[in-house]
Every structure is written in C-alpha cells, then in structure tokens.
Amino acid sequence: MADQTTLLLLDDSFRFSCSEAVLCFNKCCLDLNQFLTPYDILRLKNRLGIPSDLFLKKYTSAHTGPGSGLPIISLKFDYALQYKCPFVTPSGCCSVYEDRPSSCRTYPLARILTRSRETGNIAEQYMLLKEPRCLGFNYGQTQTVREWIESQGIAVYNEMNGSVKLIV
Fold it and tell me: For the residues of the chain, what is the DSSP string, one character each?
C-alpha cells in the first residue's frame, strides 16, 4: 500500500495519536531526510546550550539545493544505529521534545505555502501524510487541523518559518 496524502483545510478533521502505547512508536525517527529551518536550529542549539557553529558541525549536514542554489541544512542521523535521530534516547523518547523541529511537531501533517503569481498572496495549506508504517491513525481522538496546531505548539514555528521570503 502506497503512502496516502490528503489536502486538509484548518477545520477539517483527522484521527491520530502517537505515544509509547502505539507499536510503531518512534519508527518515524529512523532513516529520513530531516530538513531544518533556521528557527528549528535556533531552538535546538539553545535547548542543548551550545553555540550555533558547534550545533551545525555536530548535528547537521549542508548541501546546496539543485534547483534553487540555496543552502539546505539536514539533521545528521546515526548511521551505525539504523540512521536513528541523534535525539532519540535509548528508551525511545525524544530528548529535545519541547524544542523538536517543526516537521516532527507538525507530523502527520505537512505545511505547504504557495504564492499566487497573479496577486503575490501567500496561501497556507496542510497535507495529511498517511504512511502505511504509521499506526497512529488507529488511536486518539478526532481533531481538526486547527486543534492539532494548537495542541502541538506549531503556531510559533509557523510564524517564524513563514517570515522567510518565498522565492518564486
């Protein structure tokens, strides 16, 4: 079964919960491309109490976007441990949970920003990512996208990440 994606509006609802009670708990923290925004980097380096240059050297890798020529910063995963996120503890919990990156915080949603070529207005949408490996869709209460944003503390991340100028 392939991944399923569904476009959602702020008042559309979905069912999802992630906890240690879900059999696939933290499997999503393995072997993925985890891009970091400048705000993610700021929160993480402050959480760890280290300077930006040390955080970038120890926890990230950088490359240039092929189409944009812009720098892209990715989280380094531990290749010796099945490409595990460096912030997953031996017990399987997230050691930086309160300051986790925006993509972790937003999952199972993905935030999409688009700009109208005609008006220049920016529109925000969300996509529900329903991956077959994730069992969290069988747990929890039904909630709206708006409720998820509130419960996960996503608004400040969206505000900070949305302040970056989009290049069309």
Answer: ---EEEEE-TT-EEE---STTSTTTTGGGBS---B--HHHHHHHHHHHT--HHHHHHHHEEEEE-TTT--EEEEE--BGGGTTB-TTB-TTS-BTTGGG--HHHHHTTEEEEEEE-TTT--EEEEEEEEE-TT--GGGSS-EEEHHHHHHHTT-HHHHHHHHTSPP--
